[in-house]
Specification:
This protein is an alpha/beta fold and about 375 residues long. The chain has twelve helices and 13 strands. It has two domains: about 325 residues, 3-Layer(aba) Sandwich (Peroxisomal Thiolase, Chain A, domain 1), CATH 3.40.47.10; about 35 residues. Strands 1-7-6-4-5 form a five-stranded mixed β-sheet, with helices on both faces. A four-stranded mixed β-sheet has the order 8-13-12-11, with helices on both faces. It has a two-stranded antiparallel ribbon with strand order 2-3. Strand 4, helix 4 and strand 5 form a beta-alpha-beta unit. Helix 3 crosses helix 4 and helix 8 runs parallel beside helix 9. Bound molecules: coenzyme A.
C-alpha cells in the first residue's frame, strides 16, 4: 500500500504588535467603516524590530513539531512558502532548518504568492506519496509589513504578518492529503506584484524613490479572479478525490477579503458556518493565511477525526490551488507534558549551540588554511 501524507502537527505564530483600522486611519485617508465593509478586516499583526519571516516560521514550526511529538532531527524536508523571504538566498527554509537543528532535512523555499502554502503542501504530499520522504515540515510565513507602502491606502489596509506550519508524515492508514490541484495564469502577473529588487529592476536609487519595492495591486481585477477561481478549484479538488461538496466538513479559504469568501460560499452553495474565517483579526497574511486559519480551526474544536477539510487559495502569479485532507489524528490532542516541553527546549538550545560551533569551526578552519 502506498503511504499518504497525514497531518500530525500544526502550529502558528503571529507578532504581538496589533495595528487596528483606527491606527491606519491616523496614517492614511481611510476609516474603520470603509475597511470593515469592503474587506472584513478589523486589525492585523505587524512584525516588531528583529522579527523576520524565518524567526516567525521557526516559532510556528516548533509548535507544530511539539504537537506532532517529533524531534527536528527526524525531519527529512522543510519547505517554506513565502513571498517575503529573509534574503533572496540563502532560502528561508535553510535558516529555519538551522534554527530547529533539523540536521537531516533538505530545505527549500517556494514562491507562489498567497497560494504558496497549498503549492508547498501539494509538493510535500506528493514527495511523501512517492516514497521519497517520511517526515516533512511545511510552512507558510510572511513579513508583508516590510514590502507594504504604508502611505498607499489601497493596499496597506489589507495585509498582515504571521506564520503557520504543518508536520506531514507518511502513513498507510486511511486519510491524509487525498488530492490537490494547482494552477497558474502568468498573463495576470502584473495585477499583483513587487516590481523591483529582482533581475528585471535591480535595487537602485530610482527604484527606491519611485516606491518600486512595495506591493502593487489592481484590486478589482484580483477580486474578480479570486471570486471565480475559489469555487472552481474547490470543485476540482473534490472531484479528484472522488468526493462531493456534501462530504466536506470545513473549508479553509485563503483569508484575503470577506466579500471574496462570501461570494465563493454562495457559489458553492454551502452554509457560511462551513467556511472558516479569521481575517478580521489578521488581515491577509498571504502564504501564512491558510495554515494559521487551519491551526485556529483545530484549536477551536472545528475539526474532528475523519472530517474532510478543503484548503483553497489564490494569489500573485496569478496562481491558485486547493487540497482536500481527511483528518486522521484524534482531536483534541493532549498537550505535550512539562518534561517533554523541557526536552524540546533543551533540543533547541542544543540546535543554537550546534549552529554557533559550526560557524566558529568554519572560521577557524579558514584561518588555519590561510596562506
Ligand atoms: N479607504 C478609503 N477609500 C479607499 C481605500 C481605503 N483604504 N482604498 C481605496 N479607496 C477608494 C478608492 O480610491 C476609490 O475611490 P474613488 O471611487 O473615488 O476612485 C473607492 O475607494 C473604491 O475603490 P475600489 O478599488 O474600486 O474598491 P473596491 O470595492 O474594489 O475594494 C479592495 C478595494 C482592494 C478592498 C478590493 O478590490 C479587493 O479586496 N480586491 C482583492 C485584493 C486581494 O485580495 N489581494 C490579495 C490577493 S492574494
Amino acid at each position: 500500500m502506498t503511504a499518504a501524507a497525514h497531518v500530525i502537527g500544526w502550529g502558528k505564530y503571529v507578532p504581538v504588535r496589533v495595528l487596528t483600522n483606527e491606527d491606519l486611519a491616523s496614517m492614511v485617508d481611510t476609516s474603520d467603516d470603509w475597511i470593515r465593509t469592503r474587506t472584513g478586516i478589523a486589525e492585523r499583526r505587524v512584525a516588531v524590530d528583529g522579527e523576520t519571516t524565518a524567526s516567525m516560521a521557526t516559532r510556528a514550526a516548533r509548535q507544530a513539531l511539539g504537537i506532532a511529538g517529533l524531534n527536528p532531527i527526524q525531519l527529512d524536508l522543510i519547505v517554506v512558502a513565502t513571498a517575503t523571504p529573509d534574503h533572496s538566498f540563502p532560502a528561508t527554509a535553510c535558516l529555519v532548518q538551522d534554527a530547529l537543528g533539523a540536521a537531516h532535512a533538505a530545505a527549500f523555499d517556494l514562491s507562489a504568492g498567497c497560494s504558496g502554502f497549498i503549492y508547498a503542501l501539494s509538493v510535500a504530499a506528493d514527495l511523501i506519496a512517492c516514497g521519497a520522504y517520511e517526515n516533512v515540515l511545511v510552512i507558510g510565513a510572511e513579513t508583508l509589513s516590510r514590502i507594504t507602502n504604508w502611505g498607499d491606502r489601497a493596499t496597506c489596509v489589507l495585509f498582515g504578518d504571521g506564520a503557520g506550519a504543518l508536520v506531514l508524515q507518511a502513513n498507510g492508514g486511511d486519510g491524509g492529503v487525498l488530492s490537490s490541484v494547482l494552477g497558474a495564469d502568468g498573463s495576470g502577473g502584473e495585477l499583483l506584484c513587487l516590481p523591483a529588487g529582482g533581475s528585471r529592476e535591480p535595487a537602485s536609487h530610482r527604484t527606491v524613490t519611485e516606491g518600486r519595492h512595495y506591493i502593487q495591486m489592481k484590486g478589482r481585477e484580483v477580486f474578480r479572479f479570486a471570486a471565480r477561481i475559489m469555487p472552481q478549484a474547490t470543485r476540482q479538488v473534490l472531484e479528484r478525490a472522488g468526493l462531493d461538496i456534501s462530504d466536506v466538513n470545513l473549508i479553509i479559504p485563503h483569508q484575503a477579503n470577506q466579500r471574496i469568501m462570501d461570494t465563493a460560499t454562495r457559489a458553492l452553495g454551502v452554509s457560511p458556518g462551513m467556511v472558516f474565517s479569521n481575517l478580521e483579526r489578521y488581515g491577509n497574511t498571504s502564504a501564512a493565511s491558510i495554515p494559521v486559519a487551519l491551526c485556529e480551526a483545530v484549536e477551536q474544536g472545528l475539526v474532528h477525526r475523519n472530517d474532510v477539510v478543503v484548503c483553497v487559495g489564490f494569489g500573485a502569479g496569478l496562481t491558485w490551488g486547493a487540497a482536500a485532507i481527511r483528518w486522521s489524528v484524534p482531536l483534541p490532542q493532549e498537550p505535550p507534558s512539562r518534561w517533554t516541553q523541557m526536552w524540546y527546549r533543551i533540543n533547541y538550545v542544543y540546535a543554537g549551540l550546534r549552529s554557533w560551533v559550526r560557524r566558529l569551526l568554519r572560521r577557524l578552519l579558514a584561518l588555519w588554511t590561510r596562506e
